[in-house]
Queue: 2 jobs
Job 1
Amino acid sequence: MFLDLEDAVAADAKAEARTQVAVALAEPGWVGQLRGVRVNDWTTPWTYSDVIEVVSTAGGIGWTFVVLPKVTDVSHIHALDLLLSQLEATHGLPLGRIGIEVQIENAQGLTNIDAIAAGPRVQALVLGPADMAASLNMRTLEGGDEQPRATTSATRITMLLMRILIARGRTASSRSTTVSEDP
């Protein structure tokens, strides 16, 4: 489960949502739940504030990962790793405890998938199929589509997932991770 600060939050509500998410993650009652927070991507003015407030308020105990959307280059992972390392050191948290789940949502991210998958703290790779299809100008399954088009759309998405899985497999010997599709 992840609490969302990205697509689910309007621009004028980002600061308030950030505080609510940070407080919620620090609350008890999440027993047995694997949980994290999806921050805004690095092309926005909100990412660093999302990470700083959540880690500073919620600490690193009880939640375990940051979902980073729209990753196009391993530099996005390195920037988040550096910020997390500084926050963990500042707040006395175990170094490296907070993992990163990477969302691949465009052609550039897919092109750079091998380096991204090998980035520090990467625990999972997630395909954002709608954004990816838009990036590739690819037809997707739409209501009323006939079966041949639906099969072609599903095949294309499967091919994208396989490419991500292959990249993850190359780094799997060093750590255990997951590959999934964002609903």
Job 2
Amino acid sequence: MKLSSRFAGMALGGYEAAVTWRDTMNYAASVGDRHPLYFDDEAQTGIIAPPMYSVAFTWPISERLPEYIEDADFPLAVLQRQVHYREDLEFTRPIVPGERLHIEGCLAAIAPHPAGTSLTIRYDARDPQGGPVFTEHITGLLRGVDCEGEARGLESLPVRRKSAGQGDVLWSSRVEIDPLCPFIYDGCTRIHFPIHTSKKFAHGVGLPDIILQGTATLAFAVREITQREAAPEKVRAIACRFNSMVFPGDSISVQLLGQETQDNERHLYFRVLDDRGKFPIQDGYVRALL
């Protein structure tokens, strides 16, 4: 199975929908994030969406990606081999319930990878006035898919910043993953994929059990960081590399590895450790205004 890098840069069909308070509250509830900014709609400042809600807003495109690819020559079968590998989010401002957002997408980059081919999709969210709200880059690893041609589009991807020194763990916060968590996240976010809720499907692809959604693991990590280090309304970037799986009933530890202050911003570096000594999330990063 092959994918040509010539498809890098190809536009996807657009998508538009309203951000509702019910959806943003449900997202926060799905990962147990009780921050009042997500729930207290009587507050003078109103409420905002959790930063990670953006992945639920763009999911309707990712879920039906073949419908948004208009080039008849694109080998749609390669998409069935896709595993979520990286997540990069950048925010101009918080997402606010009640507004309507328009999404434009494209296949931003295609490149060879030792395990197959990496495919990065870019989504740009804008308000009705055309103002930017957030940009998401989702990188999937197409396992066993050969890349035809040289890498294309990598220069357009976000610069993946790493701490100058990641030595001792500054703090660690333990999170218990309830066995029902994948089902709650599925229902509250509408991010549906059977590998997270169907044992039959998971066993059929060689897994011992269903697995927690990668974006749920990341949302738990962001929850811990915004509780301790950065106000949610000031978050301007979130990024990570997904490295291993989390299973229902597992315990994970969110570990802050480094922090830097520069140009009125805080740069926070983290990872997620499980009880088996593996790191479901590495290269974790949050950028927030002071």
